[in-house]
Amino acid sequence: MKKIVPLLALLSVCITAPVMAQSTSFQADNFEPRAAQRENILNVDTTDVRPHKMPSVGIFLNYANDSVQAVDAGTNRVITKPMRRRLAGDIGLAFGLGDRLELALTLPVVLNQAGNLDLYNGGGELSSSAVGDMRFVPKVRIFGRQDGEAGLGLAAAATVYLPTGDVNSFNGDGTFRVEPRLVLDYATEEGLKLAANLAYQVRPRRVALSHVSDDMVRYSLGALVPLADKLALEATGFGNVGLDDAPTGTPFEVVAGLRWLPNEAAIVQIGAGTGFNSGIGSPNFRVYTSLTWAPQVQKDEPATPSCVECSCDECDEPKVSEKDPTPRVVITKTHVVVSEKVHFDTNKAVIKPVSYSLLMEVAEALKANPQITRIRVEGHTDSRASDAHNQKLSERRAKSVVRFLTRRGGLDKSRLEAVGYGEAQPIRTNDTKEGRALNRRVEFRIVEIGGEAVAPTDKIVTETESTVTTMEEK
Fold this sequence. Notes:
The protein is mainly beta.
């Protein structure tokens, strides 16, 4: 491993190099935080996308020190520091369309910067503030895991750079650029997420002393590691390799920090990083913080899916009147009974936003009853598709509900377990649409109270015990 030295961003130059011919019209900083921080990991894309029509708005501040320096090629002595410091804010906006597409727009704004341009464009100092090239990023999920699920996923994205940046301060290329990118990630049931991005950026050729800015291959790795309820560690490593053979290094940088979700919509991040070798844009050190507002619940969704929105078999789902005063969540001696279904995307384990409030009520009911020490979340399907498919789907849906109750509902994971039964336990016939709609369900069974096992039963026993309602009678 190369030794970390103060001159992490080297512009290897000769003292006699021509001065007036040197260019500052290229983007020097390599750190580009994503607009949708809830779905991505700092500057690394994942295959997750924003929910349909749901926005994400945020500002990501970062300070980089000595990201561009010029040194004598023979003595390795610093000649000048074209970019000594840079404080920038990336203002990001993103939203989802459907369940596969995300559109994002980011405007980098340099709030303060300083550097010496004696070797560039006639000399002088960097402007104290500037604007960078705006980034428009469409991303589409190709296949694999859905949002919030475990497993592998693949997506494609492309960054389109709009020439809004200041070409006199290393903040813009002065023309359009494009960077197509492949995204691969893997997530576990426990919330660990790993991602890898590989991209090719097409950009104009620019010369700054011995540095040549041209087309390049960019790569990045990211990890999100849950530490506690609503708190996670996030880290990325990223770099690029220019296709020109100019001897100016291949920058590589690592940043890491904490992600905190104080409520359902807000995300707060803080962290630091450093460059690990020579290369333009690889700083001596970097610190960052961000604030993002990214709500997950669609406030104006109807209480149940309509025939226009859902697949054909979902149009027969039981409806609950908004005027019905009956509580949606009732705790009995054997079950947590919900009066509405937990809705999922068809043939997937993605919970529909219409069910978020119901599951939050389940979480609140369990918080109010800590004597219930163990709950089994049971997933069931109808009989369509194969036994193996239905078994896996029911397991994934049960696990998805457990993830929601722990990550968003704030329940201790030790109180919950997920089990799938596939089509093995129908409560109605599968020969009718109505029966299939009732068989597709999630149940919440109490298995421990005060650490003592509750006798297994297929009946829901009420608090009075004098009234016993079987599942067939529901």
